[in-house]
Amino acid sequence: MDRRRFLHLTSLGAASAALPAFLGCDRPGFARVLTPGLTGELLKAKAGGKPLLVLLIPADDRKKWAQGELFGAYLNHAEPAAMADLALAHVVCATRSELAEALGDGTPDGEPLMVLIETDGSRRARPLDPTLPAVTTVDWSAGTSYEEQVAAVDASYVARNEALAAYLHGVLVGDRDAIARRAEECAAVLGDDDITRLKAADDVAELESALVDRAAAWLAQEAFDADESERAAIEAALAAAAVKRLRDVPPPGTKWATSDGCGVEIEGEEDEEGLMIACGMGFTPDLGRRFLHFYSDR
Fold first, then answer.
1. Would you say residue 5 lies in a domain?
2. Residue 281 half-sphere exposure toward CB, CA atoms < 13 A
3. Does 18 map to a domain?
4. What is the Cα–Cα distance from 35 to 92, expressed in whole angstroms?
5. Biggest distance spanned by C-alpha atoms of the chain
6. pLDDT at position 24
7. Residue 109 domain boundaries
8. Where is 93: in which H helix or E strand?
9. Which stretch of DSSP H or E encloses residue 193?
10. Using CA atoms, how far apart are residues 146 and 243, in angstroms rounded to an integer?
11. Could you please report the per-residue DSSP string of 48-103?
12. CA distance 160 to 12
């Protein structure tokens, strides 16, 4: 691989309105699936030379559904360049109380959409609360065709994903100086064997996904001045690593769930009668069918 010094690399109320009707209901007795411990996740992030990106779980139940859907649509349908950016962070889901337990007086005020915690020793916690375009839903009384409305809904999800991707690119990648700092932190925790294999590789496609993930910031810096084909190859490798960690399995602190308008199926769990409703009671956009589920029936 050429050793030059990449990554090209809402309204929540409206988002809630776009959810299937049954997802807005309150479920007495539902509780969040807790993380093993945010302090432990911070240690994992530091050991990996990555910042910790916390997808914050709001206290309000209706906002839980909306933000779980927002993050689900992003992690499942963001462009490869956006997923490549996420390879630079250790991503988890947590409540504000879990955040406060880990950070103490350093906990940001309020409930931002996300919090980025640097693991360079400072534990600086930066609230991330971008203004995102609203997503829409179908209006059965509108004069346009159903197909036109569905296309408009899909376009609104894409626009929201693009806005979030641009925001996170600035946060996680930034400019040359910022990515150089992240690459330095990353290199400091890579073993000698990892560095040797990275430098010896003629093509990033030769590297296994786990090494690409560990070396994400190092590779991102390499790609900054790479030619187009090498930059594309690094982006694809980083995106694949992020997909394996954040799409194929859920981030720590949550579970993946799906809905086709006839109820909710939590991946990895038996179907539960209490999560089912009569079909046809809500419209579920294709890009919102798989979402992060912030509840457990216990």
1. no
2. 13
3. yes
4. 8
5. 64
6. 36
7. 12-137+145-293
8. strand 90-95
9. helix 192-200
10. 32
11. TT--EEEEEE-SSHHHHHHHHHHHHHHHHHS-HHHHHHHTTSEEEEEEHHHHHHHH
12. 11
The dihedral sign for the CA sequence 86, 88, 93, 95: negative
* Inter-helix orientation angle 146-172/61-77, to 10°: 80
CA angle 135, 240, 96 (to 5 degrees): 50
Contact between 213 and 186 under an 8 Å Cβ cutoff? The reply is no
Asked if 118 contacts 49 with a C-beta cutoff of 8 angstroms, the reply is: no
Whole-prediction pTM:
0.84
CA distances to 49, 101, 112, 220 from 41, rounded to whole Å, are: 12, 13, 19, 23
What is the end-to-end Cα distance of the chain in Å, rounded? 51
**Which residues of the chain are modeled with pLDDT < 50?**
2-35, 273-274, 277-278, 296-298
Instruction: For residue 112, give the amino acid letter.
Output: P
Contact 120, 217 (CB under 8 A): no
Q: Say if residues 107 and 98 touch (Cβ distance below 8 Å).
A: no
For tokens 């590789």, what's the residue?
A: 201
* Alpha-carbon gap, residue 78 to 124, rounded angstroms: 27
What the block records as the tokens of 189 is 């925790």
Structure-derived torsion over alpha carbons of residues 86, 91, 95, 96, reported in degrees to the nearest 10: -70
How many residues does this entry show for the chain?
298
Output b/e per residue, 174-194; b: 16+ Cβ within 10 A: eeeeebbebbebbbeebeeeb
The verdict on residue 6 lying in a domain is no
Predicted pLDDT at 113: 98
Specify the number of domains making up the chain: 1
d(CA 61, CA 26): 7
pLDDT recorded at residue 272: 52
CA-CA distance, 179 to 168, in Å (whole number)?
13
Is 4 part of any domain?
no
Q: Which two tokens stand for residue 284?
A: 């579920």
**DSSP percent split of the chain into helix, strand, coil, nearest 5:** 50, 10, 40
The neighbour count for residue 90, using CB atoms within 10 Å, is: 24
